[in-house]
Amino acid sequence: MIDYGLDLHGEMLLEEYCDKQPLFEELQRVVMEKLGALVRQSGIEVNSMESRIKAEGSLAGKLRLKGHKYASLLDITDIFGARIITFYNEDVDRIASMAEVLFEIDWDNSVDKRRMHQFDSFGYNSLHYICRLPEEQYYDPEKPELNKIRFELQMRTALQHVWSAIQHDIGYKSEIETPLEYHRNLSRLAGMLELADNEFSRIRNAIADYRRRAQSLVQSGQLEEVPLDLDTFRSYLDKRPFDRLNRKIAAITQAELHEAPWWPYLKVLRIIGMNTLGDVERLMRDNFDDAYQLALFQLGSTDIDILAETVGLQNLCIVHLLKTGGGRLSLVQFFDTINGKMPQNETLAEMVIEQASRLEFMNVKR
Amino acid sequence: MIFEINEQDGGYVATVSGRLDTPAAVKAQQEIAPLLENADKQITLDCKDLEYISSSGLRLFLTIRKEASSKGGKVIIEHINDEIKKVFMMTGFFNLFDIR
Questions:
Q1: pTM to 2 decimals?
Q2: Which domains, from first to last, does chain B contain?
Q3: How many Cβ pairs within 8 Å bridge chains A and B?
């Protein structure tokens, strides 16, 4: 064993630590599996989950400084430590509440450093729980000591982690060891990151509110007030607005409808000036019959009995472009948007113009 | 044989020829088995000699695409004639494939 300059008591604790390595490794495996399952089940997006078993040298350093405080190895609560880094403050609280269900928390030794600061100071924020793995969660009759080991679970946001990591990197300990000027600068940064954390949470909540409001407007049919964007388009598609046109087109050849990606059409709709879902409804109302006529012309003489579920919307866009005088260039742009830029899109545009030129909507004077 | 399959540059190239109508598509279901088994790689369907495609042929292409999509592979369709392009466009399937 390396000579760390420990007293006899310290050496005994270090020897016990070496003997119990496999036990700590098993605890690490079990705890990380339990935490991983819990986080997955909750649906919380975490930045990272990490864990470590204290290195021998690091423990020796701790024992050298304050080994006398520990009667046995079980009194040292951070030999195994796990850390969960979230994106938002609220998720730290959610994970903490789940950890309370999963583990036995030693409240006397757990610290919420987020609440330790005076109203006029800023600094390291993190929630530290000292935990035990209860027998009802995991029990190995050959290793009953596993349930007696306390370990540390740290929960913090990504910004709190950044601050803490940088603070550690530059070797800052306390205002006693560091000139006050640097202490103040770090505190200023901590305050700024705390504000940023709160702002990220506020933005997330505002977006969630916006989505709920838009969804409710879509559900109640107040489409004029709903701007067209990814979220609202998704809610709108849930109402299957193109089904009636698709079914009518599919009936031409008794075709089945095959799923296809809708998202390229969101871009098309924005390009052709659809700003709200009300505009999309009008696009359908004004072009429904002509979109069907185009499909009838294209498919009527074929026996094609499989179509993409976007076929109705494709024809609505084509008809709208042609009726509003868009011509070949706008059709090429349309195909560029849904297929990606390729020379073949010019051929497709020409085919569509040739087909549509025989239809009534292209020959009526408006 | 409608699908003649060759391994090439770590992927597979299938030369599709003739008329891919319903009877041919039924027969070709067995022929595309190696493509489905290797759908985690790049599959190129060279259609320069493909004259016609029916709904059953489209379904075969869609089956290959679905398998590739679930296995992380990629399907490229090359050299299709204008009539077949028209079929892909009219059915709304054009943007499901990488058509070159």
A1: 0.69
A2: 3-99 (3.30.750.24)
A3: 62
